[in-house]
Design goal:
This protein has 16 helices and 20 strands. With about 525 residues, it is an alpha/beta fold. It has 2 domains: about 290 residues, FAD/NAD(P)-binding domain (3-Layer(bba) Sandwich), CATH 3.50.50.60; about 120 residues, no CATH class. Strands 1, 2, 3, 4, 5, 6, 17 and 18 form an 8-stranded mixed β-sheet that branches. A 5-stranded parallel β-sheet has the order 7-16-8-9-12, covered by helices on one side. Strand 14 and strand 15 form a beta hairpin. The longest helix is centred in the C-terminal third of the chain and has 21 residues. The structure holds 3-acetylpyridine adenine dinucleotide (N01). 3-acetylpyridine adenine dinucleotide binds next to helix 5. Belongs to the FAD-binding monooxygenase family. This is NAD(P)/FAD-dependent oxidoreductase. InterPro entries: FAD-binding_Monooxygenases, FAD/NAD-bd_sf.
Length: about 525
């Protein structure tokens, strides 16, 4: 029997494998894709690029990797990130630990044998004392259920399942549905190729300019000097690490302070500087942007002005202006030439909020009685986030109950790490953890280290089974639900609260209390002998 099976070989799964192997556990990885990379393996649509800066969207645990890898751009594109993850897998000799091209269909806890029995679609099976699910927070794509989709005579594709042989849009009529982070990255790229591009927009979101640039020798030298400090800040902050790498110190400082520390003129100047600096920094220019509605409105108004300045047709500009939700409560997008793209003659914005898509026909898509003829439809329609990859596995706990049943009213976890009724099972970046509301790479590292510490303590204490204590799960889940009421996050229908998936319970999915508070809770858990878990 294996000690541990790790499902998923993205950033989290890879590091988990490494850590457990270093600690002397027998461990095996299972990955649905034919290569490492996780989200970065699948999301290879044109324009796919990380909207967190490459220097800080990297592993921090390995001096060898740090020394030998050199990022070329401020915001790395998908191919470079995929090369990075491959480099790490090779450098640390992790590939031999992984069974690729195997999708886990079921994982069932066997009470008698005290182990997880895991099966894949290719017929591989495993028995493992512990199960770690590193299946990724945004890995299960959602295709909208639009009548007639099967009759479409052109081709359609989801951004998160982009074929390795990419579609050739040259001169073609293309429709993109969805204007979240994926949509706004791919729309400008497709517009450059397509004969005609229709963007079907349901909700206008905020997009800030990335202002991506090549990294210079001087940038790398500055990073080397500052990286320990920046990484330390980005481990604990929701704010830091979002766009402030290589930023002058004075600009960084203002982001940690509430808006009321500044006069209206100073605030405007700060926002203008951040807008020009580009990237995620503008998402949260003041510490209370996501807490105080008045501050949020002021930042949102600033961005609305920028959209009006950029888009030449005032009617189109008005349709692109986000309204009706607080800035940041739907994830703000970071893009390149997004608003400028609507000044092109071959791009047309179609409003599907007031008139939803009626149906797909063999020739195209019907909205408000008009048939838009299309050769391709690109669905940039997002993910069943945080829980989708887990609930799509037949995951059965101690009494045969599925995770779907356990989470019928929304996910309940202890520290976002484990679930009552599912002994010896652990998650990385799962619901109830800071996950997508933090630097995910660093949170994965933290959780994987914690799991390593915990399983080592189990081994040293001669224990082979842990169970989440029901009260501990209730307490943590209540805290996750309570802490979100202190911010504006719960106010908006977004994938953060499961609102994008029909029938999914509407509850906050990630822990919104910040990675610093989360780490402190986890440290207490380790230092106090793992209360919340019953060990035997
Ligand atoms: O998905 P989304 P995404 N009919 O859910 C629309 C990460 N990411 O793939 O807002 C019509 O944000 C939907 O409309 P509405 C990042 O965390 C990171 O873009 O629901 N429209 C929305 O416009 C991001 O937040 C990077 O009204 C429908 C869009 O589709 C997360 O992944 C890059 C519809 C979906 O937006 C998800 O981003 C890309 C329907 N039935 C993504 N259903 C990085 O750079 C949905 N929509 C790191």
């Amino acid at each position: 029997m294996l000690d541990v099976t790790v499902v998923g070989a993205g950033f989290g799964g890879l590091y988990m494998l490494y850590r457990l192997r270093e600690l002397g556990f027998s461990v095996r990885g299972i990955e649905a894709a034919s290569d490492v990379g996780g989200a970065w393996y699948w999301n290879r649509y044109p324009g796919a690029r990380c909207d967190v800066e490459s220097l800080v969207y990297s592993f921090t645990f390995s001096p060898e990797v740090d020394r030998e890898w050199r990022w070329t751009e401020r915001y790395a594109a998908q191919p470079e990130i995929q090369r990075y993850i491959s480099f790490v897998a090779d450098r640390l000799d992790l590939r031999p630990l992984i069974d690729f091209s195997n999708h886990v269909e079921s994982a069932v806890f066997d009470r008698e044998a005290n182990c997880w029995r895991i099966r894949t679609d290719k017929g591989l099976s495993y028995a493992s004392r512990y199960l770690v699910l590193a299946t990724g927070p945004i890995s299960k794509p959602v295709l909208p259920d639009i009548p007639g989709i099967g009759e479409f005579e052109g081709s359609y594709v989801h951004t998160a399942r982009w074929p390795k042989a990419p579609p050739d849009f040259a001169g073609k009529r293309v429709g993109v549905v969805g204007t979240g982070s994926s949509g706004i990255q791919t729309i400008p790229m497709i517009a450059e190729q397509a004969g005609k591009l229709y963007v079907f927009q349901r909700t206008a979101n905020y997009t800030v300019p990335a202002r991506n640039v090549a990294l210079t020798e001087a940038d790398i030298a500055q990073w080397d000097a500052e990286k320990d400090e920046i990484r330390a800040a980005s481990r604990i902050g929701m704010v830091s690490g979002l766009g402030d790498v290589l930023m002058p110190e004075a600009m960084r400082g203002t982001r940690m302070r509430p808006a009321s520390d500044f006069t209206p003129e100073q605030r405007r100047e700060i926002m203008e500087r951040l807008w020009q600096w580009g990237g995620g920094a503008m998402i949260i220019p003041f510490a209370d942007t996501w807490i105080d509605p008045a501050v949020n409105d002021e930042v949102a108004d600033f961005m609305r002005e920028k959209i009006r300045e950029t888009v030449k047709d005032p009617e189109v500009a008005e349709r692109l202006i986000p309204r009706g939700f607080y800035l940041g409560t739907k994830r703000v997008c970071v893009g390149t030439s997004y608003y400028e793209t609507y000044n092109r003659d071959n791009v047309e914005l179609v409003d599907i909020k007031s008139h939803p898509i009626e149906r797909i026909t063999p020739r195209g898509m019907v909205v408000d009685g008009t048939e838009y003829e299309l050769d391709y439809i690109v669905f940039a329609t997002g993910f069943d986030a945080l829980t989708g990859a887990l609930t799509s596995i037949e995951l059965r706990g101690e009494h045969g109950q599925t995770i779907n049943e356990a989470w019928a009213e929304g996910p309940q976890t202890f520290l976002g790490l484990a679930v009552e009724g599912f002994p010896n099972m652990l998650m990385l970046s799962g619901p109830g953890s800071p996950s997508v509301l933090s630097n995910v790479v660093q949170t994965n590292e933290f959780q994987a280290d914690l799991i390593g510490r915990f399983l080592s303590a189990m081994r040293e204490g001669g224990k082979t089974r842990f169970d989440v204590v029901p009260e501990a799960q209730i307490e943590w889940t209540d805290h996750v639900h309570e802490v979100v009421t202190r911010s504006l996050f719960g106010t908006t229908d977004s994938w953060y609260v499961g609102a994008n998936v029909p029938g999914k319970p509407r509850v906050i999915l990630p822990y919104a209390g910040g990675p610093g508070a989360y780490r402190a809770k986890c440290e207490e858990f380790c230092e106090d002998g793992f209360p919340g878990f019953a060990l035997r």
